[in-house]
Amino acid sequence: MEVFSRDEAHEKTQKYDRMREKKAFDESMAGVKGLVDAGITEVPRIFVDHPENLQSALASSNGHFHVPIVDLADIVKDPSRRKEVVNEVRSASKTWGFFQVVNHGIPTTVLEEMLDGVRRFHEQGAEEKRRFYSRDFTTSVAYHSNFNLYKTEAANWRDTLFCVMAPNALEAEDLPAVCGDIMLEFSKRVMNLGTTLFELLSEALGLKPNHLKDMECAKGLVLLNQYYPKCPQPELTLGTSRHTDSDFLTVLLQDHVGGLQVLYQNQWIDVSPVPGALIVNIGDLLQLISNDIFKSSEHRVVANNMGPRASVACFFYTATPPSPKLYGPIKELISEGDPPKYRETTIMEYVSHFSANAKGDGTSALQQFKL
User: Fold this and answer.
1) Which InterPro entries does the UniProt record give (predicted)?
2) At what angle do helices 108-123 and 180-204 cross, to 10 degrees?
3) What is the pTM of this model?
């Protein structure tokens, strides 16, 4: 087997028809899992990332920094404890844009079954998965690999089952049989948790608890059921390139494998798995309406040869059906000394712009909406 250095591998990717190979990969409808099942021992060229991105991935994770962990126990019945939690949420949202929550009310059994459901879907036969394969993201359920496959230079080493769970409720028969029931149960519980988180975030902004909920920030929910197969050459590719999230808020369930990293003080920091915890991160739309008080931080997932890695990213936003509702900096947060930093936009306009420009280089779509 011919083995290349990162620089040699990247150079070789320049000497072939990349778009043709991407199209062939897409039309196989088998995803990255299909490549692994076929027994590949080298990463196909469309996945080989730029050496600069890979070098920074290998030189990451500073042990001096740890993403904050927020304990949600007793926040309903103990006002002093709730005040402490609001302060913790405020600090994490302003500095990290990330925090993990424990004692969040979702049983460990539900979390484990949800991750098992992700694995069951992605590890079933290719023919079963092909029934859901689509790049039409106006549909409620779509299986694909790399939503931005044709926009980025290098593809990412992951497959995704995309499901719009709210505001229009799905039935079990609308979802894959191997994971439909647990997706409905998990989504219901995440929506309840989302209500709590948006209350805490509202209070952290100095607003009434229902402010963000009344703005319909918690109305919609999209699940991205992600599957990162074991990679034969993880030094050549990424599981997910650097990016921010286009939503208001993301709640992430990750398994024990790890690989998620957040950019903090210009360093990539591992978001180490904590048993029973859920990861929460601020999205672009919440940074926009908070007028930059809260931070939507860049993050990514490194490839690994220990996998597969399973995760569920729960996006709080409503893009389907489209709404004419405009979102701009909250008026209570602006003043003569701190004027609005962004123009108003609809969720659909923002998400469409984000998707059209998602090239995996970390460039924030928020820049296009600055005043």
Assistant:
1) DIOX_N, IPNS-like_FE2OG_OXY, IPNS-like_sf, Oxoglu/Fe-dep_dioxygenase_dom
2) 130
3) 0.93
